[in-house]
Structures are given as structure tokens and as C-alpha cells.
Amino acid sequence: MIESFFKYLTYEKRYSKHTVAAYQNDLSQFHSFLDKGHPGIDSEEINHSILRGWVVQMMDEGLDPKSVNRKISSLKAYFGFLHKRGFLPENPSKRLQQLKTKKDIPHFVKEGEIRKLLDEVEFENSFEGKRDKLLIEIFYGTGMRLAEMIGLKETDFNFYDQSLKVLGKRNKERIIPVSRPLCHLIKDYLNTKNDHFGGNAAPEIVVTNNGEKAYPMLVYRIIKKYLYEYSYVDKKSPHVLRHTFATHLLDKGADINAVKEILGHSSLAATQVYTHNSLGKLKKAFDQAHPKA
Known about the structure:
Layout: H1 2-12, H2 17-37, H3 48-60, H4 65-84, H5 111-120, H6 127-142, H7 146-151, E1 157-158, E2 163-167, E3 173-177, H8 180-197, H9 216-230, H10 238-251, H11 256-263, H12 268-272, H13 276-289
């Protein structure tokens, strides 16, 4: 049954390998819990009380509430699948509830710092220098995810429409508008890439110094290097530039639904976390201007 569940996640839900691996890890830990406290138990005998017992055990062990919630989601997905497919008469996870967690405000780079990084840094006039600059510009200019950036191919750009096609989570495609300056930067980089490798590099936009498809840690190191030098933001990663992109757009009055589509969020709630800074500015304006403030 469990193998059928993983095939369902992979081929029907089209989850990434990373996500499927997370489900596998969570369910493996759950079965270890069963082996210790309920050896030999059948799936039909597992009830809400047993599932709740695992949740309580994880809380007693001091596991982060967000991690516990992910494992609860894995249980609900697994037992929900078994029930819908007729393997179980009842869904024992139906009454499991997520733990309350503190909502973290996304880290983002201040506008002055990002301008300094983009306008004042003198990148080398070489393949490597142009690649590094392009990475920063694309992350901040489009808000795409790290995995999306790595998978981006040269054919995904439409220079006529000034847009690019992105393959996001669950293989969902979306179109992101690209500014004219960024289009020029991309063209220049691609010409340099082609000259540098004689047309023999990987078809992906971002490649290593050997012309092979880039890997996450390489991109992470590049972004981290420049953010360390030119920003005081606590976290320094490609995802911080995604947060920065969204925050700055909303600060400038962009429609939140449009930002949602550009980011590839499945729900508006995921985009609303970026309104924190805009709300702060609104409160400040209110305090300064309203007679009753």
C-alpha cells in the first residue's frame, strides 16, 4: 500500500523527488514509532489515539512545531489516500489538527542595499562575472525559486514579448514578464556563454565554469557571497531575493493577485506574508497624518 501511495505522489500529484523523499522519511519515522509501541499492528487497527500519541511524543522530544506539522500533513495525506482507495474503512487522521506556530516575517534586502549591489558592484567582464551578475538580477527581477532558476533553459526566454517561461512546483508552467534592461543583460550573457564554450555548454541558462548545468550549492554560494558584502539582511540566500522582489513590488503598490501569479503561489495566503512591510508603512502614515492617531 505504501508503494502505491508514493507512486500516487510521483505520477498523479507530480510532486518533486525532494517532496516525495520527505513523505518517505516521515512515514518511515511513524512506522518506527509503531514498531516500538504497537508491534505487529495492522493498518486497519491504527486509530486517532495512536496517531495523536506520535504527535505528543514528537512534541515531548522538543521537535519544532513546523516539523511536527509537516509530519501531520504526511499522515493525513497517507491515510486519506488509503481511505479514498478503499484500503481503510475509516480515515484515522481526519481529526488530527495542525499545531499553532509563530509566523515568521520573511527576510528581505532593503531597497538601498539592493540598489547598491546592482549598481555599484563591478563584476568582471568575463563569463563568470556576467553569470554572477545575471543570477542576482534574475532572482531580484523575477522572484523565481532556486530550482526554477537552475532548470531555466535558453529556449524559455521570449525576447520579442520580453517574458520567460518557468516550470514551477508540480510541473506548473507560468509566464513571468522581464524588464527591458534584464532582457539586454540576458542577451549579452548568452552571447558570452556561447563564445566562451564554443556552443558546447549545457542548454540551461546558468552553467558551471565547465559549461555543465549549475547545481544548487553553486548558486547559493554566489548569492551568499555578494549579500554578505553589500547587505545586512540576516539570512543570505537566493530565496531572500525572492522575498525582496515580492516585498518591493507590494511596497510600490503592485496588485497582490498579480504578484501571486508571478511568484507561482497556489493561494493568496502565501503571498500575503509579504504585505508586512507595506502594512508598516501604512501604519506610519496613519500615525503621522490622522487627527485621532
